Amino acid sequence: MRYPFRAIMTVLYVAGFSTAAYFAWQAAGYYGLALAERPLATEMHKLYKPGGLVGHGLGIVGGTMVLALFLYPARKRRLPGLRWGTMSRWLTVHIWFGITGPVLITLHTALKFGGIVSISYFSMMAVMLSGFFGRYLYSMIPRGPGGDALSRKQIDELVAHLGETLAGRDQTTSEIARLTDRYAGQLGQPGIITWGRILAFDLTRPIRPWLLGRSIHRVAPDLPRTAVQKISKRTHQRAMLVRRRRMLDSVNRVFDLWHVVHKPFAYVAVIIMFLHIAVALLMGSRWVF
Ligand code: HEM
Questions:
Q1: SS3 143
Q2: I need a labelling partner for 216 at 20 to 30 A (CA). Which of 169, 185, 195, 231 fits?
Q3: Measured between alpha carbons, how far is 44 from 104 in angstroms, rounded to an integer?
Q4: What are the pocket residues of ligand 1 if the criterion is a CB atom closer than 6 Å to any ligand atom?
C-alpha cells in the first residue's frame, strides 16, 4: 500500500507548529514576567510553569519526540524490527521529531534556563541547528529514490543518460547546447572558493532552471514552452550531478566530521535529560495528567 507520505508530513508539521504557536500565544504574557513575579500570576503559573499542567505536558511530549528521533540511527544500523521503509523517509520523520520536539521543550522550559539541565537544553538546540547544515551536506551526496548514496559509477551513468537525452530528443540546437554546457559552470579544485561557488549556486537553485529557460527562449523563440521546460529541468539535474560528483570526496569528509560533532552532542543532551527526569521524580514530581 502506498502512503501519501508528503501529505502526512505536511499535516504533522502544521499540527506541531500550530500546537506550539497556540501555547506560545496563550502563555506569552506569563513568559514575559520576571521569574519572581511569575508565582503571583496564579492561574497562568499553574498551567505554564515547567511542572504545570501545560508546561509539564509539553515537556513529556517534546522529550518523547526527542527520544523517538533516535529511531533513525537505530534504523540506519538495521536493528531488528526496524528494517522496513526507505532511509529518506526515516530521515524526514527524524527531522520532524528533531524540530518539533525541541520547540515543545522550549515551551516546557518556560524560558527559564539554569542548572545542569540547561546543558541538555543547549546541547539539544546545538544538535538541532547543526542538523540543518547536516541536511544540506546530506543533499550534496547524490542518492537514489530510497535515500541510499549512489556509487560513482551510478552517478556517471546518470550524467551520461541525461546528456544523451539532452543531445537527442529535446531538439537542441548548437546555441542551446552551448547554454546547457555552460550551465554547470566552472569548478576548480575543491576548496574554500569552490565551496563558496557551490553555496551561491545552491542558494539560487530554485530560480536557476527558470533563468536558463528564459535564456533558451531568447536563442530559440519558436521552441514550445514544454520543450524549454524539459531541457532546463534536465540540464539542471545534470549540472547538479556533475557538481556533486566533483565535490564528492570533499563533501564526504565534511559530512564525516559533521557526524563527529552531531552525535556526541545528541547523546549528551539525552543523558542529561534522563538525569533531569530522575531528579524531578526524586524531588516528588509526578505524571501530571
Ligand atoms: C534534538 C534534535 C536532534 C538530535 C538529538 C539528532 C540526533 C541525531 C543522531 C543521533 C543522528 C545519527 C547519526 C548517525 O548515527 O550517523 C542524526 C543524524 C542526522 N540528523 Fe539529526 N538530530 C536532531 C535534529 C536534526 C535536525 C533538526 C535535522 C535537520 C534539519 C537533522 C538532520 C540529520 C541528518 C542529515 C543526519 C545524518 C543522516 C545520515 O547520515 O544518514 N537532525 N541526528
A1: strand
A2: 195
A3: 18
A4: 66, 69-70, 72-73, 76, 91, 94-95, 98-99, 101-102, 124, 127-128, 131-132, 134-135, 138, 259, 262-263, 266, 269
**C-alpha closest to that of 197 among 234, 236, 233, 243:** 243
Closest CA to 241 of 147, 143, 170, 164: 143
Residue 198, CA distances (Å) to 79, 205, 233, 234, 240 in order: 36, 10, 18, 19, 10
Grid cell, residue 74, equals 537505530
Instruction: Please give the torsion angle defined by the CA atoms of residues 241, 242, 245 and 250, in that order, rounded to the nearest 10 degrees.
Output: -110
pLDDT at 150 over 80: yes
Q: What digits encode the pLDDT tens for the residues 29-58?
A: 999 999 999 999 989 999 999 999 999 999
Residues in the chain, overall count: 289
The DSSP secondary-structure symbol of 149 reads B
- pTM here? 0.88
Which residue is closest in CA terms to ligand 1's atom 29?
131
